[in-house]
Automatic annotation (TrEMBL):
One of its GO terms (molecular function) is pyridoxal phosphate binding. Its EC number is 5.4.3.8. Belongs to the class-III pyridoxal-phosphate-dependent aminotransferase family. It comes from the Bacteria. This is Aspartate aminotransferase family protein. Pfam families: Aminotran_3 (PF00202). Its cofactor is pyridoxal 5'-phosphate. It comes from Duganella violaceipulchra.
Amino acid sequence: MAGTRDGLNWPRAQALAAAERASYIARNPESARLAGQAAQHLLFGVPMHWMNDWSTPFALTVREASGARFRDADGHKYIDFCLGDTGAMFGHAPPPVAQAIARQAARGYTAMLPSEDAAPVATELARRFGLPYWQFALSASDANRFVLRWLRAATGRSKVLVFNGCYHGTVDDVFVDLVDGVPTQRDSLLGQVHKLTDHTVVVEFNDLPALEAALKQGDIACVLAEPVMTNIGMVLPQPGYWEAAQQLIKRHGSLLVIDETHTISSGPGGYAQAHGMQPDALVVGKPIGGGIPCAVYGFTEELARRVEQAKHDAPPGHSGVGTTLSANMFAMAAMRANLEQVMTEQAYQHMFALAAQLAEGLRAVIERHQLPWCVTQIGARTEFQFAPTAPHNGTLAQAILDSDLERIIHLYLLNRGLLITPFHNMLLVCPGTNETDVERLLSTFEDCVGNII
């Protein structure tokens, strides 16, 4: 088993894991039946192969979800602190979005033409994020992919710089890590035939000398980054890091793309607005439409003009940017309702207060049991990590991951009606979460800890 076991009674933990798996199997016969049925025609037995990566012996089937709660096929009710790993960050089926979808359902889904919602959505995005020009995609993966294409065309440079351990969806360019200090294409990337390291540069987050050394080469079109790394476990920028990094990026003629898909938890305008950053481009995916597949990306005035010029100078034909369903009427209606009525300042204040309660409670449990763990909070997003202090780069974050321990904790919580995000220990709160929900999570988490020390 990788990672730390400091302070744990591992035989007790293993016995607990076995008991929790048996309990899950016994209490979920309908999900088991549906999993068996799905295996007949679904590759890997699930709609997407990563749905098998939860802590459960077989996939849990969801029947319905609303607000901070969902019900499974066996009738069990859950408080959801995963919220679709940010896709449902503002709760499942927010009423204004549900109503907008219902209205649009009778008015058409897609037409390859603008709808009446297009201009209001772009206006609101410009107001929130401080970037005047916007385009749309169906996912953050697509949005990041399109932005890289636009910026390579606009700058005439071929390379992109990412941070070790990053994740920006299924964009091939980002699947490069540092292995013993050497840029290396990830072995997990299936079917990749082109050498990614020819056009992708990777450095450690928070390492200004490494960033400057890479930028000095003069061939990097853009730096693609989350302002806080999230997918490998949260890695916060050190004080002054982004201020200095932005100066370096500008000095060497590169551009900064901020991926706010997860850090939109920081506030109505995301982390960049909350912390005074000035990116050249910005991407938001999963939560922007209240759970409907869509994403947005915006440019500064200067970059927008360069992008338009690049398109004007190119020969006629497909640009490689956009899909037929991008900016469809259905998604635009959902985005407008979510931006105007759900992603409000009031909603964020409610979420911030509950996330603070959750973070403080987790720290108290960890301290009471003298565990060498830490807790990090970014707005409505909270995470506990198996190290006494938060990691400051991807290598350190990777080293403290402990998938076996995560699975025990996650399944223990799930069997008691509490869902947190798989792959790491992230918890989200939404407008529908309340103080009692947080207290229940903390109490159950403490019970779990008590069973493994």
